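Schema walk-through. Below, the input block comes first and the output block second. Nothing else is stored per chain. Lengths vary across the set, and this one has 544 residues.
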Amino acid sequence: MNKPIYVIGHRNPDTDSICSAIAYAHLKQSLGISAIAARAGKINNETKYILDTLKVPAPMIVNYLYPQVKDIMKPAQLTIHANQTLKELGRLLASHHTKSIPVVDDKQHLCGIVSVSDLARRYFDELGMPDLAESNVEYASIIKVLDGTLVQGDIVGRKITGRVKIAAAKVDTMLNTISAGDIVLVGDRLNVQLACIKLGVACLIVTVGAKVQERVCEAAAKAGVIIITAPYDTYICGRLINQSVPVSIVMQKEVVTFKPSQLAMDIKKTIAETRFRNYPIVENDRFIGVIDRDSFIMPEREKIILVDHNEVSQAVEGIEEADIIEVVDHHRLGGMETNSPISVHFEPVGCTATIIAGLYWQNQITIPQEIAGLLLSAILSDTVLFKSPTCTERDKTVAKQLAEIANLDIEAHGMALLKAGSDIGSMSATDILRNDLKEFQLGDYRLAIGQISVLDGESILAMRAGIQAEMRQMCLRDGYDMVLLMDTDILNECTHLLFEGHPISLIEDAFGEKGEEGVIYLPNVLSRKKQIVPPLSDAARKEK
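--- output ---
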């Protein structure tokens, strides 16, 4: 299944960015293209009012486009419990044609990882019969690996305390090597079986499926000796007993693990520097998946359609790791590079939504009522109810058509959404500054320009000290040469431009005055795109 295409606007999205993303994703879906509306930041008050009024859910948030570990891991399927035997491990390795298996406990917590190499090392290290007492082996495990049958004794919870011996020599010789508490492998030799019981061994394993005589069982019962029969010969039983050891004994406990939220590019170096076959993925201490080094590849790039902007500095973080396949915008060209030719829809209109409405009609796709409401809202917001100098006759014409489809009154709906957007009662200085903040590279200068539209410009000026303090912090923290905020008074059609940073000459060259205490009054200025960025750009070029 192909990955969906994300339709997404700029960081700190405004109404046009959100509404256009939703509408264009819907148009793509109507054309049979898998598209998802997304956003690159928090929704502001104005946009929230619009979505709530039209009963449209907010787009999914995408904080960055860097591929994560969860995008490339294989979900948890094959595991082995720490208490399972080496015999069970061998069967799993063989049947699943794998080289290693994660080891977990009852709660799926990762205990370690065990590989074919660990299993082989166990056998190479065993020169004689294994000391199962050191391995915490239970009698139940021995019965399991031997395909054996319990003939006599109680094994519930009992663990091996002695060593494993083979009764292959003469009785006298054998008795000198066997100690009380040992496990003895013995064939159908009545005298040896009784002699071992008399010595106080812990367990007799009678091989080749030999029948245990009644007198042996009676003697074992009196002495508290366990008797197990196995269908295999003594040699095979000796080798199989080694496989009763729990996986926890041979597993690697120091394991390189990753979290699903880690970036794929960040783990490449670790994988290159280590030589493990598999890397477990752990979340909240639980094993959830694995990455195989042999099949490790970076995932397919996300496919992105940008709306309402075309600049890397304004794009969602990690845009360079994605494939931009289309841009729909009404701003200046921002110098963005793409990996291959793309579709572009640029028009000198006041709002991206105006372009998208035209694309609906161009493709003969009916615009649903709620989508028409979103597109209309974006136009009214971006053109400030047609007052902005960016507004064109096409914006007005399209808005009227959309208003009919949405069954909304332009004036009433426009004032309502602008009023919602101008409500700063619960907003902090940081919220106001980042409400609609865009980054620009103008000449040699990196600038961040925010805008907030209010019905009373004095309300923002009353918070000026806190806002300008945050602006100074942004310059220091984020490396901006200058941070500006447009305090736009909708009713009086003017803007107070707050600014911090250097060079101040940039402000003077752009607007003809230095301003007092970091504020300039700009009558008849409503548009960042048309009335703030162009003069600043010209001034930046003169500064070179």
